[in-house]
């Protein structure tokens, strides 16, 4: 009886291993699946870079006091009030944003999670492409969009609009404030989900045609 149970168990394990091997090879050799995973990897890595840009660039540009070769130079004040908060420019910028009540500890923990997933994709892409249980969590793009929106909308409302006399006395809702980074991630998310990203393009064409000189 024991031998029979062992034989059945061994057979189940063998079948499971064969199934896993087949799905891994299918993931690598099926052109549709491979293309989908390559696109998902590219979109996630791009989304992470966009988020980093929103986290770092606004603060760096705000405190810059000069430009060199078209790039903002890092001022002493930028170092003192931001970069000194952490050895990582991303985390230092997040700490500054937290001081300004723009992000909170949950947001910072989320960025840490994103960084780990980003590193897995960037450094272990072959494993993700060929191992059936390793996947790109493309759903995180939507959460990236929400965090980019939170940061960019604050800068637009509190900084850009506050120094532009054209917006004196104007109160803009969140729905009325959109940054280029927000639009880009929206399009990327639509592509990742297999939806029609052409809708945004058609809306842009309509808007451009109505307002062009």
Brief overview:
The protein has 213 residues and is mainly α.
Q: Can you walk through the features of this model?
A:
The chain is mainly α. The protein has one domain (2-211). 71% of the residues lie in helices and 2% in strands. It contains nine helices and two strands. It has helices at 2-29, 31-63, 76-81, 89-99, 105-123, 125-130, 140-160, 180-192, 198-211, and strands at residues 67-68, 71-72. Strands 1-2 form a two-stranded antiparallel ribbon. The radius of gyration is 23 Å and the shape is globular. The N and C termini lie far apart (87 Å).
Distance between the termini: 87 Å
Task: Provide the β-strand percentage band.
Answer: under 5%
* Number of E-state strands: 2
Mean pLDDT: 83
- Helix and strand run: HHEEHHHHHHH
Tally of contiguous helical segments: 9
Radius of gyration: 23 Å
Domain count: 1
Low-confidence stretches: none
Helix content: over 70%
The backbone outline, from C-alpha atoms, is globular
Strand order of the largest sheet: 1-2
Largest sheet: 2 strands, antiparallel
Helix/strand/pairing category: mainly alpha
């Amino acid at each position: 009886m024991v031998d029979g149970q062992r034989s059945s168990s061994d057979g189940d394990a063998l079948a499971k291993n064969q199934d896993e091997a087949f799905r891994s090879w299918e993931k690598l050799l099926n052109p549709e699946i491979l293309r989908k995973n390559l696109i998902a990897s590219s979109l996630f890595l791009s989304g992470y870079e966009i988020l980093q840009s929103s986290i770092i660039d606004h603060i760096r540009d705000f405190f810059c006091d000069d430009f060199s070769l078209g790039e903002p130079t890092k001022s002493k004040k930028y170092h003192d009030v931001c970069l000194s908060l952490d050895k990582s420019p991303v985390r230092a910028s997040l700490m500054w944003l937290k001081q300004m009540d723009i992000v909170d500890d949950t947001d910072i923990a989320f960025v840490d999670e994103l960084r780990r997933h980003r590193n897995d994709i960037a450094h272990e892409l072959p494993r993700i492409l060929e191992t059936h249980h390793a996947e790109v969590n493309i759903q995180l793009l939507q959460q990236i969009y929400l965090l980019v929106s939170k940061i960019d909308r604050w800068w637009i409302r509190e900084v850009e609009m506050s120094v532009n006399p054209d917006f004196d006395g104007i109160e803009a809702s969140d729905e009325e404030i959109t940054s280029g980074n927000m639009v880009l991630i929206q399009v990327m998310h639509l592509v990742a989900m297999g939806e029609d990203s052409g809708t945004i393009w058609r809306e842009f064409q309509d808007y451009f045609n109505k307002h062009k000189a």
